[in-house]
Predict the 3D structure of the following.
Amino acid sequence: MASEFVYTRRVEFADTDTANLIHFTALLKFMEEAEHALYRSLDFVGYRWSQDLVFGMPRVSVSCDYLGAVRYGDEVDVRLQVREVRRKAIRFAADFTIDRCGEREVVARSDWTVVCARREHGSLDWQGIEIPSPLKARLEAMLPSRR
């Protein structure tokens, strides 16, 4: 299995600020879109709502370093990597790249951790649960040390 998952997203007008630059929160949204696209590629749904409970993969830690300008119309590749898979948590990292004169330029780097969790309807308290074994195996196959 590939050790990197690439998700491509064009910067839309709503993603920018008055200086025609991407708003910092838009890259975080791209990061989450890439994560859920990865789950779908692994035949997994990262968020489910049923009559009894809500299942999700909430973020517990996020960092992002912004390294270059991203503007309206740029096509951003989110190059997502699985860095660590624990019993209940997954750590991801991503490079955000755009084309600059035929070369890919890294414009941001992000690192985040999600936990596998559920909560009953009517409750605001999430409870950490083990990552489902089919998903865990597929994610572990993406770890750099497993290549």
User: Anything to note?
Assistant: Residues 24 and 50 are 33 Å apart (CA to CA). The chain has a mean pLDDT of 93.
